[in-house]
Amino acid sequence: MANHSQLNFQDASSPIMEELMEFHDHALMIALAICSLVLYLLTHTLTEKLSSNTVNAQVIEIVWTILPAMVLVTLALPSLRILYMMDEINEPDLTMKAIGHQWYWTYEYTDLKDLTFDSYMIPTADLPLGHFRLLEVDHRVIVPMNSTIRVIVTADDVLHSWAVPSLGVKTDAIPGRLNQTSFLASRPGVFYGQCSEICGANHSFMPIVVESTTLADFENWSSLMPS
Fold first, then answer.
1. What is the percent of the chain where pLDDT is above 70?
2. What is residue 10's predicted lDDT score, i.e. its pLDDT?
3. C-beta neighbour count of 142 within 10 angstroms
4. pTM for the whole thing?
5. What CATH number does the domain containing 196 carry?
6. Burial of 127 (C-beta count, 10 Å sphere; 0-12/13-18/19+)
7. Other C-beta atoms within 10 Å of 69: how many?
8. Could you tell me if 110 and 166 are in contact, meaning their C-beta atoms sit under 8 angstroms apart?
9. Is 35 in the same domain as 104?
10. Boundaries of domain holding 132
């Protein structure tokens, strides 16, 4: 859960999000090195006398051609690795379908039994004490921790986007099309997200709440939910 004046990402709650944060730090270090080099060269150019010794310096031309290519390779290789990891879905433990509407979500669990429910944002007037305004819903998505969850995402009317930052998940919900993504919650907790695609007047009022529990608690919850 993000807080006020937070400058960094939310705490990672899935292996994919941990990889994304590490790549973010890796890219920032490369950007810092480039900015430091450019600042040094700019300062050196402004403070030193002009010289014509580098007019025919082929070595420098080779260096400033090869060096950027090497930088791009060091960014591209880990980026492609993470992209393949995010697209790879091998034998999920549970499959769930998320359907976007104006302006709420419908969830379908079809692996255990025909379990379907709608998830609406709780109005501020009805919000229990201690819950988050504009983020809490009447029915949370319950998933077992340390289990691969496949989410099939679609929409019923306009474009939506199913996004939970701390789990590293963001998938567009497109009418007439099925997109899929996956995540693995590495710890128990409650993770908040929101629709991340402008979908109309109440776009800001269709939050997503994913609660990660133990397998026993998940089985108890699914047995108590009406079909």
1. 96
2. 85
3. 19
4. 0.83
5. 2.60.40.420
6. middle
7. 9
8. no
9. no
10. 94-224
Q: Are residues 73 and 182 in the same domain?
A: no
CA angle 107, 223, 97 (to 5 degrees): 15
Collapsing DSSP states into helix, strand and coil, what is residue 164? strand
10, part of any domain: no
Q: What share of the chain is helix, strand, coil (3-state, %, to 5)?
A: 35, 30, 35
Residues 104 and 81 grouped into a single domain: no
Whether the CB-CB separation of 216 and 102 falls below 8 Å is answered with: no
Q: Rounded CA gap, 208 and 192, in Å? A: 6
Q: How many CB atoms lie within 10 A of CB 188?
A: 14
H or E element that contains 55: none
SS3 186: coil
10 DSSP assignment: P
Q: Using one digit for the tens of pLDDT, what is the confidence trace for 106-138?
A: 999 988 778 899 999 999 999 988 889 999 999
